[in-house]
Automatic annotation (TrEMBL):
<dbReference type="InterPro" id="IPR006461">
    <property type="entry name" value="PLAC_motif_containing"/>
</dbReference>
<feature type="compositionally biased region" description="Low complexity">
    <location>
        <begin position="1"/>
        <end position="28"/>
    </location>
</feature>
<protein>
    <submittedName>
        <fullName>PLAC8 family-domain-containing protein</fullName>
    </submittedName>
</protein>
<dbReference type="Pfam" id="PF04749">
    <property type="entry name" value="PLAC8"/>
</dbReference>
<feature type="region of interest" description="Disordered">
    <location>
        <begin position="1"/>
        <end position="43"/>
    </location>
</feature>
Length: 205
């Protein structure tokens, strides 16, 4: 019998296919849960609600209210609404912006710090205008101006002005509040730097 031939088996190296790289994970940006910087101010909403409730609680008292006899006259005329022209055009096109600006000066900051043109009061005025109730916040704001600066007028005049001369009313209120607040700041600054009595020093001989 012939001797069997020893056959050497050659190991074939099979190259492994390159591994596919896993796709890079894309970070999904979920909705932000941080506070929104929208125009809605809940403090403003509560303020308007409280003021409306006060009026509704005693309507006859508010309607018949008027300024005291010692009240001053308005510095700006109701029919001077064409000057300045930029305020006139803004009020004609966007009366809600002018109304919100005056409200910020009266109720928040006389120097207009933190003011934004689109704010809660602006949107509220726009909504009330859509249902022909804009004269309510306008007459309330005019009453605020009379009370703050001791100006002449009455609630009935405020309502009539808001209903019949709305744009003139807005311009007059904005100009009057701006001028009066500037006077208040100047007088406060003068009192702050006024030397106290007995603090003057005589020059040395």
């Amino acid at each position: 019998m012939a001797a069997p031939f020893e056959q050497t088996q050659q190991q074939q190296q099979v190259a492994a296919p390159p591994q596919e790289k896993a796709p890079a994970a894309v970070a999904a940006s979920g909705p932000s849960n941080g506070p929104s910087n929208g125009p809605i101010d809940h403090a403003d909403i509560e303020d308007w609600k409280n003021r409306l409730n006060e009026v509704l609680a005693k309507p006859s008292e508010h309607v018949n209210s008027k300024s005291p006899a010692t009240a001053q006259s308005w510095t700006n005329s109701l029919f001077g609404c064409f000057s300045p022209i930029d305020l006139c055009c803004m009020t004609w096109c966007l009366p809600c912006v002018t109304f919100g600006k005056t409200h910020h000066r009266l109720r928040k900051n006389g120097s207009m710090e933190g003011y934004e043109p689109i704010n809660t009061t602006c949107l509220m005025f726009c909504a009330s205008s859509c249902v022909a109730l804009h004269w309510i916040p306008m007459s309330m704001q005019r009453a605020d101006i009379r009370s703050r600066y001791n100006l002449a007028g009455s609630c009935l005049v405020d309502i009539a002005t808001a209903c019949c001369c709305g744009l003139c009313d807005l311009v007059q209120a904005e100009k009057e509040s701006e001028q009066r607040e500037a006077l208040l700041r100047n007088s406060a600054g003068a009192q702050q730097y006024q030397p106290a009595e007995g603090m003057s020093y005589a020059p040395n001989a």
